[in-house]
Design brief:
The structure holds 2 protein chains of 2 kinds.
Chain A: E1 5-16, E2 19-30, E3 34-38, H1 45-53, E4 60-65, E5 68-69, E6 80-83, H2 95-105, H3 110-123, H4 139-151, E7 157-161, H5 169-186, E8 189-194, H6 197-203, E9 206-211, E10 214-219, H7 221-226, H8 231-236, E11 241-250, E12 255-258, E13 264-267, E14 278-283, E15 289-290, E16 299-311, E17 315-321, E18 327-333, E19 348-354, E20 358-361
Parallel strand pairs in A: 3-8, 3-9, 6-7, 7-8
Antiparallel strand pairs in A: 1-2, 1-4, 4-5, 9-10, 11-12, 11-14, 12-13, 14-20, 15-19, 16-17, 16-19, 17-18
Helix pairs in contact in A: 2-3, 2-4, 3-4
Chain B: H1 2-37, H2 56-60, H3 64-97, H4 100-115, H5 118-129, H6 134-141, H7 155-180, H8 184-191, H9 196-224, H10 228-234, H11 241-249, H12 255-284
C-alpha cells in the first residue's frame, strides 16, 4: 500500500461555459498522505475535489483512483467519500441513520451496521447522540457526524471540502489537530480543500497551491513556506514583504538587486536573470532583524523609518518605510530576542536579513496595500 | 392590575368580527344544509313547509346506483390526482432547479392559464377535442387518421380537463418544497453509494413529502366534487358526485337529497384527509 499513488489527476481540465475552472492539472497524491489543495476562491481547488468525487467529469484529461482510470464512473461507485463544506447531513434522519446510510447502500448486513456506526462515532468522539437529529447538534458536533458518516465506509480516500470553515476560530484550531491525529490513526488518504493557508500548513504532509485553475507549486509546508516558487505563492502563504527592484549585476553565486532608492541587496541566483530586469524580492517578516550585529557577514542591510508599531500579543510588528517609499514589515517576538525596547514612530533604524532568506521572482510587484 | 383585567375583558370582544364572519359564512350555511337534508322536499324545489323530518334521503344514498357514482368519482379523482402529482413533481423540479432569475417567470407561465376564466378554458379545451376541433383537424390534415377520433364526452376528456384545470394546485406546493430542498443532499447520498433512484426515494422524496401531501389534498378535494368540468367535457355521459349534486339543485329540484349528498361527501373528504395527513406525517418522519 504505502508508496503507491492514491489519486492522480492527468491533465485534468474542466470548462464551465466560458470559464476554465481547471486548466490541465496534473497531480499525484500518495497513499496515506494528508494532502491539501490550497488557494483563493475560484482557484479550482473545489473543482478538483469534485472531479475526484465524481460529481463532475473532466472536460479533458483523466482522474485515477488507486491506479484505476475513473472515466465516467458515477460518484456512487467510487471508492471515496466526502465531508461537505456545509456537512450536508440528512435532516430527516437521526445521527445513527445518517452514519448508517453508506453501509446500508453498500448492503452491509443489518447485524453489523450497529457496531460499525458506534465505532465510527467513538472514533470522532461523539458517542451517545445516536438518536439525535442534526438540527439538535452544535456545529462542531454536526461536523463530527459528517466525518463519521464518511469514515464509516472505510474509503480509500477521504475528500474534505473546507470542513472547518463554519466553525469558530478556537474550535477550528482544536479540530485541525484532531483531524490530523485522526488521519494518522485511520491511515486513510485525506485530500483537504482550504483557502486558509495556516490550516494547510498546520495539517498537511504536502500542499498544492492553486490559482486560476493551475497548480503553482506542490511541496511540503516547509518547502512552500521557505522556498515559494512564485510571487503569488510567497504572497499567499503566510505574511511576506515584497520589494520591487531591478537586477544590477549577476555574479557566479548571487544576484545584486538595485532598489529604486539606490540601495543594493543580494539574493540567491535565479535562472534567466538579466541586468536591468525588473524583479520582486520576497522576505518573511520574521527573518528581518532590527539593528543586526554589524560584524555578521552574508546580510542584506538597509535603513528605514518606523511609521507604525503593532502589538500582536506573542509578536510585535514594526512597519517600516524605505527611503524610496516601499513598505516593509518586521515581526519579532514581543519578549526575548528584542535587545532593546521596541522602536518608536518616526525613529530611523537599521535592518537586515540573511541573503539566503530572500527569494527573487522575475515579476514586477503591483501597488502594495499597506498591511497592518 | 386594573389594566390587565381590562384587557382580558376586552379579549373576547376582539374575536367578535372573526367569529361573526365564521358564523355568517360558514356555520349558518352548514346548519342550513344539514337541516334541509333531514326534511322532506318541496314540489318545486326548496323544502316542504311546515317541515317534515325524514332520513329517507340518506337511506337513498345507499342505492347501488349512487354508490357506483360515488366510487366512480373517487376513482376519477384519484386518477386525476395521480396524473397531476406525477407530472407536477418533475415540473416542480425543473422550475426549482432553473436559475433563480428564471424561476419567477416559469412559475408565472404555470399560473397565467389559471387566471383565465375556468369556464372559458374548459370550453376552449372542449373545442380543441371536438370531432371538428383542432386536434382532430391536425391529425386528419397530416393524414395520420382517416376518421375523426372521439376525444370528447368520455372519461378521457373529463380526466384531461380536470388535470388541465388543477395541475397548478399540484405544482405550487410541490415547487415550494422542492425549491427549499438542498440539492447538496443528493450529492451526499450519491457520495455514500446511493444511485439516483435510491437517493430520490430515501432523501429527496421524504424531504419534499409535505409538498406532495399538500398537492394531493389540494387536487383531490376539489376534483372529487367537481361538476363544471365533468359536465362540459363529459357531455352528461360521465357522472360524478358533483354533477349529481348539481342536478339535484337544478333539474331534479330535490334540495334535501342534494344536501344529504353534499354533507356525506364532505364528511368522507374530511375523514379521508385527516387520516391521510396522519399517515403521511408518520411517513415523513421515520422511526
Amino acid at each position: 500500500m504505502s508508496g503507491g499513488i492514491a489519486v492522480e489527476l492527468r491533465g485534468a481540465t474542466k470548462v464551465f461555459g466560458e470559464v476554465t475552472a481547471l486548466n490541465a492539472v496534473s497531480l499525484q497524491i500518495r497513499d496515506g498522505e494528508f494532502f491539501s489543495l490550497l488557494g483563493p476562491s475560484g482557484c479550482g481547488k473545489t473543482t478538483s475535489l469534485r472531479l475526484i468525487a465524481g460529481f463532475e467529469l473532466p472536460t479533458e484529461g483523466e482522474v485515477l483512483i488507486g491506479g484505476q482510470p475513473m472515466g465516467a464512473t458515477p460518484a456512487h461507485q467510487r471508492p471515496v467519500n466526502t465531508v461537505f463544506q456545509n456537512y450536508a447531513l440528512f435532516p430527516h434522519m437521526t445521527v445513527f441513520e445518517n452514519v448508517a446510510f453508506g453501509l446500508e447502500m453498500r448492503h452491509v448486513p443489518k447485524s453489523e451496521i450497529g457496531k460499525h456506526v458506534s465505532d465510527a462515532l467513538d472514533m470522532v468522539r461523539l458517542p451517545g447522540l445516536e438518536k439525535r437529529r442534526p438540527k439538535q447538534l452544535s456545529g462542531g458536533q454536526q461536523q463530527r457526524v459528517a466525518l463519521a458518516r464518511a469514515l464509516v465506509n472505510r474509503p480509500k480516500v477521504l475528500l474534505l471540502d473546507e470542513p472547518l470553515g463554519a466553525l469558530d476560530l478556537k474550535l477550528r484550531k482544536a479540530m485541525q489537530l484532531e483531524l490530523k491525529s485522526l488521519q494518522d490513526r485511520v491511515g486513510i488518504t485525506f485530500i483537504y480543500v482550504t483557502h486558509d493557508q495556516e490550516e494547510a500548513l498546520t495539517m498537511s504532509d504536502r500542499i498544492a497551491v492553486m490559482n486560476y485553475g493551475l497548480v503553482l507549486q506542490v511541496g511540503t509546508p516547509h518547502e512552500i513556506y521557505e522556498r515559494p516558487a512564485s510571487r503569488f505563492v510567497a504572497d499567499f502563504i503566510g505574511e511576506t514583504n515584497l520589494i520591487a527592484g531591478e537586477v544590477a549585476s549577476v555574479t557566479a553565486e548571487a544576484i545584486e538587486v538595485k532598489l529604486p532608492g539606490g540601495e543594493r541587496i543580494k539574493a540567491s541566483l535565479i535562472p534567466r536573470a538579466a541586468v536591468g530586469q525588473a524583479v520582486t524580492l520576497a522576505v518573511r517578516p520574521e527573518r528581518v532583524r532590527l539593528e543586526p550585529d554589524p560584524s555578521v557577514g552574508g546580510f542584506n542591510r538597509l535603513e528605514a523609518e518606523v511609521f507604525e508599531v503593532v502589538f500582536n500579543g506573542a509578536t510585535t510588528s514594526i512597519l517600516l518605510r524605505l527611503p524610496d517609499g516601499q513598505v516593509l514589515i518586521v515581526r519579532q517576538p514581543t519578549v526575548g530576542t528584542m535587545r532593546t525596547a521596541p522602536p518608536e514612530k518616526g525613529q530611523r533604524v537599521r535592518l537586515g536579513w540573511p541573503v539566503e532568506a530572500s527569494s527573487l521572482f522575475m515579476e514586477k510587484v503591483e501597488a502594495q496595500a499597506v498591511p497592518v | 392590575m386594573g389594566g390587565s383585567e381590562n384587557r382580558s375583558r376586552r379579549g373576547p370582544l376582539l374575536v367578535l368580527p372573526a367569529a361573526a364572519y365564521l358564523v355568517v359564512f360558514f356555520v349558518l350555511p352548514l346548519v342550513l344544509v344539514l337541516v334541509i337534508s333531514f326534511v322532506e322536499r318541496g314540489r318545486a324545489g326548496g323544502v316542504r313547509t311546515p317541515l317534515v323530518p325524514t332520513i329517507a334521503y340518506y337511506i337513498r344514498l345507499f342505492d347501488p346506483l349512487y354508490i357506483g357514482i360515488f366510487l366512480n368519482s373517487v376513482r376519477i379523482a384519484l386518477l386525476v390526482t395521480g396524473v397531476c402529482v406525477l407530472t407536477g413533481y418533475p415540473l416542480g423540479v425543473f422550475i426549482g432547479r432553473a436559475p433563480v432569475r428564471l424561476r419567477g417567470s416559469l412559475m408565472m407561465l404555470v399560473m397565467i392559464p389559471f387566471w383565465t376564466n375556468f369556464l372559458v378554458r374548459t370550453y376552449a379545451m372542449k373545442q380543441l377535442l371536438a370531432a371538428e376541433g383542432g386536434v382532430n383537424g391536425l391529425l386528419l390534415g397530416i393524414g395520420l387518421i382517416q376518421e375523426p377520433l372521439s376525444l370528447i364526452f368520455n372519461e378521457f376528456s373529463v380526466v384531461l380537463g380536470l388535470v388541465y384545470g388543477y395541475l397548478p394546485f399540484a405544482v405550487l406546493p410541490m415547487y415550494a418544497s422542492i425549491e427549499k430542498f438542498d440539492l447538496n443532499l443528493m450529492e451526499a447520498a450519491s457520495d455514500l453509494g446511493a444511485n439516483l433512484r435510491r437517493a430520490f426515494l430515501r432523501i429527496m422524496l421524504p424531504l419534499t413529502l409535505p409538498g406532495v401531501v399538500a398537492a394531493v389534498v389540494l387536487v383531490f378535494v376539489p376534483v372529487v366534487g367537481a361538476f363544471i368540468t365533468p359536465d362540459i367535457m363529459g357531455g352528461g355521459k360521465v357522472e360524478m358526485i358533483g354533477t349529481l349534486i348539481n342536478r339535484q339543485f337544478g333539474v331534479a329540484r330535490n334540495w334535501p337529497f342534494g344536501s344529504a349528498m353534499s354533507l356525506t361527501l364532505m364528511l368522507m373528504v374530511v375523514v379521508g384527509v385527516l387520516y391521510y395527513f396522519r399517515t403521511s406525517d408518520e411517513g415523513a418522519r421515520p422511526l
